[in-house]
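To whoever is on call:

I kicked off a structure prediction for a single chain this morning and the downstream step that reads the tokens threw a length-mismatch warning. I double-checked the sequence; it's 460 residues and nothing unusual in it as far as I can see. Pasting both halves so you can look.
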Amino acid sequence: MLFLLAVSLLLYQQVAGQIPGLCVTNGQPNSNRICCPSPNIPNAGACGSNLSPSRGSCSPLSAILPNLVINAAGDTRENWPYYFDYLCKCNGNYWGYDCSQCAFGYTMVGGICTRQQVPRKRKSTADLTIAERKRYLNAISQSKLNSGYTRYMAIRKESNPPEVVQLSLYNLFAWLHYYAGKDNDLLRNNDCKEKVRDYGHEASGFLTWHRILLLWFEREIQIMINDDSFSLPYWDWTKPENRKSVLSNDWYGSSVNGNIQGRFAAWQTICWNKADLTCDRKGILCDPTITTGLLRRCPVDAACNENSRLWPTQRDVDVAASAATQRDSVNNSCGSDNALCNKGIERKLHNAGHIILGMGGFLNMNGLDPGTMSSVPASANDPIFLSHHTMIDFIFEQWLTKNPTASYVGPETRASYPTLKGHGPTDVLVPFIPLVNNNQAFQKARVFGYQYVPCRQWWS
């Protein structure tokens, strides 16, 4: 218990999002390269340093993550946090880019974050009441329409100086996933083999990176709707009845010839550009203010219907959750002996959902555009991504529970870099501010203040 508390104090002060809005001046990151806002409290000082107790201090990156590795020769992600040299380092259970919040799992009493909350429950989509489902879907819809969201912003142009823009909360969520998974900015010696530079997939950081992404979005929704109890539900797609319900207009919508129906029918995507997938583009940053077409998904009457044999089974989940080791190859892909990847969680269980919902073999055969979930950079545009990845996180949590002494294991040697940059134990997860590395993110859900509730179907 003491170990978990010590880890939590280190980790809670780290996790957050992209460019904080309070660190942007005239559409650009602060030119002095300092991102140490003051909490919205009179005379609080930078990072709440003048408050009693002091909430934090404006610190150099080396004081926040001593083992931070910066490679000046790479694209902006290799140098993250590229635009700042100083960030807030929060004390104790304070959290956030300005140390104004409590850490995950804590609540503020009298201005002090000392009271530990009962872990929030992430439930199965099958177990949500009608009221809970409507509340959840309404919040997700609101996050897409929330044009007044300013807590974090996205990079529009990596120029000198760079240009930063305001997006809705959901579009920023989609952009974060795009930015981590987009192609490389800089091809050394114009080598097209280096065009793929994925900071959140195809290596050991896949699980930790997505855990932090979901936590960040969940917290931002809580702030938006002023409800700390809000939690993301997981979608247990091993059950045909769950696939049928979630792929209906009661949830994320059915689809007709690839066109999504229901409440998300009019959702426009960002950063879904097929030209970005060619080597000639060299990972040029998308403009997230330009929409790139409606969501698309495999029709439920095709290969992705509830009876399809392509969906993973409960046995597949059990095999992945019971694997003995967590390791990674050095070849920018998951080796055949990687328990959390090739044998299960990423390549088998995770990829199956993206492939089935993205294409399912139907759209291409009928001359239609592929589904949104088929594109790694663009897949988070589809809100079904949330429940799919929460299920993946649940399986990761099962593995952690069965391996309580496990520690994060990244690429075997630095010879695998820069291809696997971002996946080493002390590499920061791009592009989150405040900073967090893979070692810190490789913790059980309770450390972050949430837990999973097994679906009632599992006990029937």
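Update from on-call: the warning came from a stale cache, not from the record. Cleared it. Sanity check on the structure: Residues 205-225 form the longest helix (21 residues).
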